[in-house]
Amino acid sequence: MSATSASLYDKYQALQLVLHPGGIMEVVMGAGQSANGKLSTADQHLHRELADIWRTIDEDPQVKVAIIRGEGRGFSAGGDLSLVEDMANDFAVRTRVWKEAKDLVYNVINCSKPIVSAMHGPAVGAGLVAGLLADISIATRTARIIDGHTRLGVAAGDHAAIVWPLLCGMAKAKYYLLLCETVSGEEAERIGLVSLCCEEAELRDKAFEIAGRLASGSQTAIRWTKYALNNWLRMAGPSFDTSLALEFMGFAGPDVQEGVASLREKRNPQFP
């Protein structure tokens, strides 16, 4: 990176950022956590950075396309339970994270540069927001896509209401979101939830191949096509805003306490 571009990224500590030749920015979640054998969890630092990074990438003239992926055993493991507990118990934390969650969705949608996601292993939580809202989403055949909101005891906010019905249809969206069912990468490709799937050994190479094609194409044509297509998502903005408000109202209710406890104790929740 040039000194000018590098300064744009000074504040990012939880994300590993690598600018590759041709203007491909690789955004890696969980690089530090994977060294300890852990999956990437969205603590307060990663959650904030995932919301902000797309604005920074949009402002960087050196970047033509972004790739987001996870390091280690999976793409993302969802929200850090300590952060979830803070949201449930602290109004100030809850309102701050609500804004970050809103910004994450709209910043991905409004980033003018195309985004490619490369998902393997578990794909849950804030990472999944970027994974499924990416312009080209790639999953390994054995990836496990899970929207875990109802299992936690809150409404499926985040990205679910804005994009799942558009990608895979309302019937499938309701089935997977209401029941908190796991979608394999192979099934996700079959129902249209992701762009394509591949073997895990091919994932990173496939992401860079597609990113390279996007970076070498007409930047105005590609970016303006993304902008026009994403108007479908912008039209669903009111549905998303409602779902996010209901999700965060749930964080103030009793069910989320049982949801967190059951996850910590590795048992099925027993909601009242």
UniProtKB/TrEMBL annotation:
Coiled-coil stretches noted in the UniProt entry, renumbered to this chain: none
InterPro entries given in the database record: ClpP/crotonase-like_dom_sf, Enoyl-CoA_hyd/isom_CS, Enoyl-CoA_hydra/iso, Enoyl-CoA_hydra_C
Alphabetized GO MF terms: catalytic activity
PROSITE patterns: ENOYL_COA_HYDRATASE (PS00166)
Domain of life according to the entry: Bacteria
Signal peptide, first to last residue: none
Record family assignment: Belongs to the enoyl-CoA hydratase/isomerase family.
NCBIfam families assigned: PRK07327.1
Protein name: Enoyl-CoA hydratase
